[in-house]
Amino acid sequence: MNGQSGDDVAVRTQRPDRVAGVALVCAALLFFSAMNVAFAQDATKSAPSPVAPGDLTKPVFDTTKPVYDPGSGLDKAASTMVAEVEGRPITLGEVGDAIKSLPPAMSQLPFETLYPGVLDQLVNQEALVIRAQNLGIDEDPVVRRRLRAAADHVLSDEYLRREGSKGITEAALLERYKRDIEGKPGAEEVHARIIMVPAENEAADLIAEIKGGADFATVARRASKDTTAPGGGDLGFVTREGLNPEMGAVIFASPEGQLVPYPVRSIGNWFVVKVEERRRRPTPGFASVREQLSHTLLQEAATHLAQGATEGMKVRHFDLLGQEVGDYARPGR
Fold this sequence. Notes:
alpha+beta; 49% helix; Chitinase A, domain 3
């Protein structure tokens, strides 16, 4: 048998049966797996998504719950210490507060851009506070009065924000949007160009040059001291709210395609102004004005709260000599 043992021959002769058996088992497993997948697919098709609302005619989110919960925006990492001056910590929350107090154009910059400079400022400020306290400045009656006024201002503002936000819901925001914005034309925009120079006579000479046929953009690149000079004085499309009062009044009163025939005085300089074209923005969608609407509602609520702040409280008034004034009429009442 060519040197092969009986056991070896037995193994070889049994192997095809074993292979066939294994193949049969595999085929069965594949069949049942396929059946399970099919059943799962059918179940998926027939059953609703577990995250779908029971009634799709109703809003997915709660429109009546206040959307400005004072605690919802608290940063859990606010207490993280990011610097220390003479043992006094500076926290991430303080950095965030400082960033929020910046002008909008700056506060919207990326956090990683603002963080180093803001932190340095807070470190320097803390060092100055320590030096002031070492000199006893914090014990000065005038300083103590100002500190109390600052603390009172923070507390009153926070009260107005928290109480005023209780009525700001998605339903209230949507109602205000439908009342004030939906279906109405968007803001008017004007495409304008400017040339800024320090003297009125210089602006008048440039107006005469442009009236004589010179290209406005070319003159702007040569003579304007404004940051728009490289672009030929192009302001792009602007709204009236985006301009200071002097420039807004002139630009939005000027005809389309016309050079303003006189120099315009604004922010300590003189301007040559040309209106290129006008257009209206489309009606803004709810999402784009949601923050603006919430700010409006909060301001209205704060005004109402401030007007009724003393209700139920005993208030006494005194004249400049310290004598109580019996019948005191509050302004506007």
